[in-house]
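Following up on my earlier thread - several people asked me to post the actual chain instead of describing it. Fair enough. Here it is, all 403 residues.
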Amino acid sequence: MSRQVIKRRSRGFICVNAHPEGCRRNVERQIAVAEKLPPARGAAPRNVLVVGASTGYGLASRIAAAWGCGARTLGVFFERPPDGDKTATAGYYNTAALAERAARDGRYAAHINGDAFSDECKRSAIEIIRRHLTPLDLVIYSLASPKRTHPRTGIVHNSVLKPIGRPFSSRTVELDSEKVVDVTLPPAAENEIADTVAVMGGEDWRMWIEALVAEGLLAPGVRTVAYSYIGPELTWPIYRDGTIGRAKQNLEQTARTLTQLLSPKFDGSAYISVNKAVVTQASAAIPVVPLYLSLLPKVMRGKHLDENPIEQICRLFSDFLSTGKTPATDEAGRIRLDDREMRLDVQSEVSALFPQVTTENLRQISDFAGFQREFRNLFGFEVSDVDYEQPFETDVPLRDSSA
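Reply from S.P.:
Thanks for posting it. Predicted structure:
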């Protein structure tokens, strides 16, 4: 047992510890949203695999599947467990809270804490699926990682956040100093582009689906969805047209390849869901994005359009995945959950505000305080109704739940 008072510790845009009770409250609140999903008429997924399931859109997907649709779920993630006086990562505590609630509610929830890129992890998942989740009718791919050890070659690929072809200069907010500063990023080398595609592109998604096909674990009509982002023009040099964007292009090509694989065998399909920008540890590390995400939610709330991750994913399930119909897509075949973010009136207002922000007026023009709060909430801090002066148990077990 390791009860202690836990104070947030940060280093730049990285929070190096997490609060188990804050994480539990976050999960409970997401479950409460998912439970309000209207019941689907025979089209809801029943057996769901989520790769990258412990935070952000991946965690929201698992919660929406389990408590919104009544599905049995397997979550795959790579999180640090507690170690003595050291806390676990937030994703570990999120999953522990999900497992505790699933056991109480009689829902099947299995977990694999390991390297999702590895063949070993895929084999472990296949065994669990074969015993408890056959056949799978939905596979969500929401993996976000800075590096990947390729299971065939052993080469370690590291992703980078860089423009392609020319340097990129813009403005951002330093999270530690809270200053609005100019930033210039050099263009990526060819090997950096290739490495980013190897980490964040579609190859591993394809490997997961091919392994499941080979083992006969997919249901007729199976769907698989990978998450992506496009964003506004002001972020394109670093995002859509940069190294990340090149990886996302590869992801989209993979969706087409997987549909060609799944359609004749299972009447199945693969989709890219382009989601709204939200605060994550990854997004906080991308230049320009912290300033953009300090402006966007404020503008969207003013128009009653804002959605957090669980609200966004509940809309994905209710409007696209649980209708019994082919999901509506754009001309490129993508599901567009970023439709509200990309509305002309929203983007026009954000674009007008962006160049006006300075260090001095940051908190007046933008909702930087809200950005900070959301970022800290990710790690279980500054969550309402949690008494941070009280000690909490940090050595929380992670148990599978079955029903």
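The chain has one domain: 3-393. That should answer part of your original question.
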